[in-house]
Amino acid sequence: MSAIEEIEVVGFEVVVICVKPSTESNNPQFPTFGSMEERNMCSILFNENLERRFAERGVAFISLFKYLINRNLKSKTEYYFDGVHLGQLGMPFAMKGFKKVVPVLFRANVSKFEIYFRIVIAKIFAYLKFINRKRL
């Protein structure tokens, strides 16, 4: 059973978020290969493949990529809080994507707290499944 099937079995709707653009890093613990632009071009191709494959399975896919790069394929680092993770300035893009693919979360009677809570719980569940797989 795939991770997606395991998540669906327990009643969660699966939403996959794209791979985010790469940023520059001089940290020797996290080496990078190629330029930021080259890595971002690879990520564009990877995301296109993911989106197509998930669409074939009927799984929602949110792409934020176009909002997070400029025309020269350089990442807009102001949307990251640590160079890797999306920060608060980038959240409106994520919420726009969620609203498009899971509109039920945005009904008038659902609070923003509940939306974030559901997203966080789903992320934790997926992470725990990933950790368990690595241990096996």
Q: What labels would you give this structure?
A:
single chain, 136 residues, mainly alpha, 4 helices
The number of strands is 2
Number of domains: 1
Radius of gyration: 16 Å
In which order are the strands of the major sheet placed? 1-2
Spans of 5+ residues with little confidence (pLDDT < 50)?
Answer: none
- Average pLDDT, rounded to a whole number, is 81
* Helix/strand order: HEHEHH
Terminal-residue CA separation: 15 Å
Helix/strand-derived class?
A: mainly alpha
Shape: globular
State the helicity in percent bands. 40-55%
Individual helix count: 4
> What about the largest sheet?
2 strands, parallel
Write the layout of secondary structure elements.
Blueprint lengths: L2 H7 L5 E3 L18 H22 L2 E3 L28 H11 L10 H24 L1
Parallel strand pairs: 1-2
Characterization of the model:
The protein is mainly alpha-helical and 136 residues long. It has one domain. Helices cover 47% and strands 4% of the residues. It is built from four helices and two strands; from the N terminus they run αβαβαα. A two-stranded parallel ribbon has the order 1-2. The longest helix is centred in the C-terminal third of the chain and has 24 residues, at 112-135. The chain is globular and about 45 Å long.
